[in-house]
Every structure is written in structure tokens, then in C-alpha cells.
Amino acid sequence: xxxxxxxxxxxxxxxxxxxxxxxxxxxxxxxxxxxxxxxxxxxxxxxxxxxxxxxxxxxxxxxxxxxxxxxxxxxxxxxxxxxxxxxxxxxxxxxxxxxxxxxxxxxxxxxxxxxxxxxxxxxxxxxxxxxxxxxxxxxxxxxxxxxxxxxxxxxxxxxxxxxxxxxxxxxxxxxxxxxxxxxxxxxxxxxxxxxxxxxxxxxxxxxxxxxxxxxxxxxxxxxxxxxxxxxxxxxxxxxxxxxxxxxxxxxxxxxxxxxxxxxx
Length: 264
Description:
This protein is of the alpha+beta class. The chain has helices at residues 4-33, 37-89, 110-116, 120-123, 137-146, 192-215, 235-239, 243-246, 250-254, and strands spanning 95-99, 105-108, 151-160, 166-178, 181-190, 218-223, 228-233. It has a five-stranded antiparallel sheet. Strands 6-7 form a two-stranded antiparallel ribbon.
């Protein structure tokens, strides 16, 4: 619309300038060339017909040019829409667009339909509060009230599928205009597998710690690339050093070696 308005103003402006110049120049020319008033009136009639013909050609050329420009703009817009739909619909991550004021979901891709288990028509009847556990909605509304950045970087939330399953996600959103309405595009990633792996790692670490304590030994892990030492076991009882005194560098580890055992 912003591009179309200047075209609408440009056409009558050019026509007005053309008409003004025509009247001024031809009237002055007639005053110099016409021998009498009767001839002037006679030529004025032909001048009017010539003006109608020329102005018609000018308007026609301007309209054709504007139509071509609008056609190019519509084609570019159509291609942009196709690229957007391709990226949106085929993205492997769940995505949707929601109305910034009503929170109604306006668009949703296939990955979101599969992840949240709502058929597309039903998904488009929801708002973003309905894909979260009810107890998390107040926190969501509080977060949205403070949302001011155009790009909202990844944050962790809990979402809920149609069957009531609750799962962890990270969410990134970006402000945009959708059909003239203020909206946000959301990209969501299921963190269930990552959380499960983190829990398993924590459990393994805790079991290892318990085993080392039960054996009454000291175990350390020295990362050569990071020059970092991780201690485990009841070192405070055995060596008499606190956790802070043990440190996490190779230098702190070397300080605990008896001088007779130094390689230098």
C-alpha cells in the first residue's frame, strides 16, 4: 500500500503539469501566429482535440507503467510468500505464529501439529496459554507483559500436548506483522532427550561419588586440554585439605605431591 500511494499521486501530478504547460505554451504560440480572433478560436478547437489525444496517451502510458510495477511487486511478494511457506511448513522444529494481543495461534507448521498432537484445524482454534500447564500460565502472562525486544532469545518452558503430557522445551520468538496484525513467530525445541541425558549423567556421577567414598579412596580426573583437575573422594579426611585448598589446576595438584616424588 505504501508503494501504491505514490503511484496514485504521481499520475495526476504528471497530468496536471502536462496540462499546465500545454495551456501556457500553446496559448502563447497562438497569440503570435493567429492573424485574427476568428482564426484563434478555430485553432483553439483543434488545440483542445489535440490536448485530449495527447493527454490520453500520457495517462495510458502512466497507467501501463504503474500496472507493470505493481505486477512486478506482486510477483516478488508472491515469491517471498512461497519461500516463507517453504521454510515455515517444512521446518523440522515446531513453529507457530500467534497474535500479540489476543494470543490466538494464527499459523502452525506440520512439526508442531505432530509434536503437540492437535489436528491443524483444532490447533488453529487454540491460544498459546492452552499448550502450557495451567499452573504455568501466570508466569507466561507475566513474561509476555515484560516482553519488549523484537527478538526474544531461547528460554526454557514447560509445554503440554493434547493428551496432557508435559515436556520441557526451549523457545525463541520474533516479532512480525501477520496480515496487518502485530504477531510473534515462535520456534520451539523439545528438550526431553537432553534432559534425560543430563539426568543420567548426574545419576552416574552421583553413583561414582558414592562408590569412591565407600572404597575410601581418592580419585581425580585431569583434563590435559583444559588443564583442569576434578577431585572425588574423601580427600579432606585422607589428605587434610579442604575442597578450596585442593584447587582445580595442575599447579594445585603438583603442590600436593611429596618433594621426593617430583620428577625434577
